UniProtKB/TrEMBL annotation:
Keywords: Membrane, Transmembrane, Transmembrane helix. It comes from Streptococcus suis. This is Uncharacterized protein. It comes from the Bacteria. The chain crosses the membrane at residues 27-46, 52-69, 76-102, 122-141, 148-165.
Length: 174
């Protein structure tokens, strides 16, 4: 049995790496295009342009921070990027299907699981797709660190300012 696993690993893993390497830029773009589209789809439910602005700022911040981290350690950048993109995608998913961001109260409400029973297969499929998209590869671009930090700080200050102007807003990261 161990030999079969070893054989499969020795044949499949290099093929998958080669395929990902060949399409790395396309997968990288696909990851962010789908994330941005999910922000737009969530807008259908929320009807709040503020949500689109804040979510877009957060997505751009994730891209910049991933690139900054990736200059030092690509694995940490990939983990950071995958987790944060997963959070954004899941929150947009909950916004679209539930009309609000997920909260601890919702998670602790066992009765809500019974309410999901008729749509549970759809939700499971969507969650698998969201996780798969968040695990797509990232590319670290050669941009000056100071330029990236300045861009991130401008986005961060912009988001804080925007939040202060619209006090009734929420965000996946707040």
């Amino acid at each position: 049995m161990y030999e079969k696993i070893k054989l499969v690993r020795s044949e499949i893993v290099p093929k998958v790496k080669r395929i990902i390497g060949n399409y790395e830029k396309q997968l990288f773009l696909f990851k962010y295009v789908v994330t941005f589209i999910s922000i737009g789809i969530a807008f259908i439910t929320s009807k709040s342009i503020e949500q689109v602005v804040v979510s877009t700022i957060e997505l751009l911040s994730i891209i910049i921070l991933s690139n900054i981290i990736g200059k030092r350690n690509r694995l940490y950048a990939y983990i950071f990027n995958s987790v944060t993109v997963l959070i954004i995608l899941l929150e947009q998913f909950f916004m679209y299907f539930g009309g609000t961001y997920l909260s601890m109260i919702m998670l602790s409400n066992v009765g809500s699981l019974q309410a999901l029973s008729n749509k549970l297969p759809l939700y499971i499929i969507c969650i698998i797709i969201v996780i798969s998209i968040s695990l797509l590869p990232i590319i670290v671009y050669d941009v000056e660190r100071d330029t990236q930090l300045l861009m991130f700080l401008l986005l961060f200050v912009g988001e804080i300012t925007y939040f202060n102007l619209h006090k009734d807003m929420t965000s996946p990261f707040y």
